[in-house]
């Protein structure tokens, strides 16, 4: 999802402890991760020790659907708050199956909205505040030219957070690992063809030669490593760490190359590249993080400001709507905003946001005191789908009750020792609290997303791989698509094109590396990846071929990219999609 954000690789690894609660660590004896399992006609599909494959439910009589789902271990979803399989096959009668599928599809779209809003409005601003407090450079706009470290670590994680969380959740269950591979490869094909081609169609430009070649080479190496892992059918601890190590080496290479280029520019050895305008900072068009209608522009501020009451501060801070912006926007923006408002309201209640660009750092005393209570409660109730929060201490007192009690005491102390006008010295700690709370929101939404995609796959008899390369990949890439194309239309096609190849390197290296690393134990430091479908190899080959095409054709055009290049990439993606779907439905198959 496209959104500006900041975080170092260490920040990604620090999530391991949080995600481990939902990761479903794979002990000895668990079957290998099933990548793209497709039930063959006339073949009794068995999921190893799980009994009959859950996809067999549609082959049963409709009166037996509910009994089959509830009795088959393979139909039990790991994690999540809702049992989608039980809902569609037991709650809804068979004749209302189309209605159930429609509701699930709408809920799937809303989950993507939740992921996007959480990453854009809450996750990324808090990461920005963390980088500021850690005394790191803070200019994420022109990351490819000014501050490369932000572009390849902080901005990459802000953009790729939903992708990485989805991959980690999918890898946590052997039955949904195909979603992770399909999404990582499918998003790579989509971004490097449709998005990159769309940029060239919108605004022909001259690509930055050295950054392009560097990113494509690293990405091809990452794809080759993943291809070899799939070929040998396993990934070891060293290989998983190698994925993360390769990304660290990529970060080091970007920083070193940029430093050398700057030095040569200063010495006059390198002529300046093609000009691009400055990134606009129109505060009127950029909705502030954790939006509310209480932040007035200069012309709307009263001449004689008076102290606001805590109740007024709380009500304005909890309003997700800027009425002045509402009046200026078209009808479709207002319609989309209506759907987003419930999500934003709940997030405003549970996730604090620290904004270093504001004078008061977005300090809202009554709301921040409320966050001391709601944010830890959110974390404990979403960790392991609420298992830890509902645990009874000595069988008497629930953990969530203890969290409420401690949070209330800390909130009361904070309220009586602070003022509405000036943030406390420890206000930066709210950025870390907001980062953790928004990360738990993303993780919870990603878990529901993976479960509902698996349910749709069982209903329509589709493999996890095809669901990953279509629905999950499109949903996670839609934000990148709109942001990159908008950037190109505004006159920054080189920056948008660099983001196409630079950002997805993070997704594949950290998504696969961290996702598999969290499934390893001391007794079994190996995760088996056994693709039993031709579609997995077509997907990997299509991504590699698209990268080779760009690696050869872009220099052949002297890095002058126009509409012909864009049309070729989009036609390539359409051809790939046709082949993938024909393979899924066994029109194309091996004898």
TrEMBL record:
GO biological process, one term: intracellular calcium ion homeostasis
Residue ranges, annotated region (Disordered): 271-298
Membrane topology per record: Multi-pass membrane protein
GO CC, one annotated term: mitochondrial inner membrane
Every Sodium/calcium exchanger membrane region domain range: 105-255, 431-581
Signal peptide: 1-20
One family name in Pfam for this protein: Na_Ca_ex
InterPro entries the UniProt entry points to: CaCA_antiporter, NaCa_Exmemb, NCX_ion-bd_dom_sf
PANTHER family, per database record: MITOCHONDRIAL SODIUM_CALCIUM EXCHANGER PROTEIN (PTHR12266:SF0), NA+/CA2+ K+ INDEPENDENT EXCHANGER (PTHR12266)
Name of the protein in question: Mitochondrial sodium/calcium exchanger protein
Organism of this sequence: Eubucco bourcierii (red-headed barbet)
């Amino acid at each position: 999802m496209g959104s500006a954000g900041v975080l170092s690789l260490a920040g990604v690894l620090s999530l391991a402890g949080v995600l481990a609660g939902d990761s479903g660590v794979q002990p000895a004896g668990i079957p290998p991760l099933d990548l793209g399992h497709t039930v063959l006609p006339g073949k009794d599909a068995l999921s190893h020790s799980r009994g009959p494959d859950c996809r067999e439910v549609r082959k049963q009589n409709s009166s037996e659907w509910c009994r089959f789902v509830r009795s088959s271990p393979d139909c039990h979803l790991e994690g999540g708050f809702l049992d989608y399989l039980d809902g569609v096959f037991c709650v809804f009668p068979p004749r209302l199956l189309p209605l159930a599928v429609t509701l699930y599809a709408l809920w799937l779209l809303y989950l993507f909205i939740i992921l996007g809003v959480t990453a854009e409005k809450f996750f990324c601003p808090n990461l920005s505040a963390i980088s500021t407090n850690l005394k790191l450079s803070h200019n994420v706009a022109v990351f490819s030219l000014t501050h490369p470290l932000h572009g390849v670590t902080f901005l990459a994680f802000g953009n790729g957070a939903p992708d990485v969380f989805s991959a980690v959740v999918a890898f946590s269950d052997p039955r949904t690992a195909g979603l992770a591979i399909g999404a990582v490869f499918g998003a790579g094909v989509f971004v490097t063809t449709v998005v990159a081609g769309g940029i060239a169609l919108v605004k022909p430009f001259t690509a930055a030669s050295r950054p392009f070649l560097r990113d494509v080479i690293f990405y091809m190496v990452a794809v080759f490593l993943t291809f070899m892992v799939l070929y040998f059918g396993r990934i070891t601890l060293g290989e998983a760490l190698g994925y993360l190590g390769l990304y660290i080496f990529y970060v080091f290479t970007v920083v070193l190359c940029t430093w050398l280029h700057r030095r040569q520019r200063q010495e006059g050895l390198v002529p300046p590249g093609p000009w691009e305008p400055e990134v606009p900072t129109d505060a009127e068009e950029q909705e502030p993080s954790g939006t509310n209608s209480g932040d007035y522009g200069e012309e709307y501020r009263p001449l004689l400001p008076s102290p606001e009451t805590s109740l007024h501060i709380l009500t304005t801070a909890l309003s997700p709507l800027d009425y002045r912006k509402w009046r200026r926007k078209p009808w479709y923006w207002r319609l989309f905003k209506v759907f987003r408002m419930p999500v934003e309201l709940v997030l405003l209640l549970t996730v604090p946001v620290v904004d270093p660009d504001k004078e008061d750092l977005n300090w809202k005393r009554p709301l921040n005191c409320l966050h001391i209570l709601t944010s830890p409660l959110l974390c404990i109730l979403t960790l392991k789908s609420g298992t830890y929060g509902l645990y009874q201490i000595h069988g008497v007192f629930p953990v969530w009750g203890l969290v409420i009690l401690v949070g209330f005491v800390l909130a009361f102390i904070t309220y009586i020792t602070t003022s509405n006008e000036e943030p406390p010295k420890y206000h930066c700690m709210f950025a870390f609290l907001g980062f953790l709370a928004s990360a738990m929101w993303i993780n919870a939404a990603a878990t529901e997303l993976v479960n509902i995609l698996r349910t749709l796959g069982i209903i329509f008899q589709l493999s996890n791989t095809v669901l990953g390369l279509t629905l999950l990949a499109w949903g996670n890439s839609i934000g990148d698509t709109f942001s990159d194309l908008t950037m190109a239309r505004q006159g920054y096609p080189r920056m948008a094109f660099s983001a196409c190849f630079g950002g997805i390197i993070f997704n594949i290296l950290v998504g696969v590396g961290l996702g598999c690393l969290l499934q390893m134990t001391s007794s079994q430091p190996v995760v088996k990846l056994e693709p039993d479908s031709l579609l997995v190899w077509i997907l990997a080959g299509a991504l590699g071929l698209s990268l080779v095409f760009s690696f050869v054709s872009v220099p052949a055009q002297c890095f002058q990219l126009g509409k012909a290049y864009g049309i070729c990439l989009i036609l390539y993606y359409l051809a790939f999609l046709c082949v993938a779907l024909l393979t899924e439905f066994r029109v194309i198959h091996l004898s």
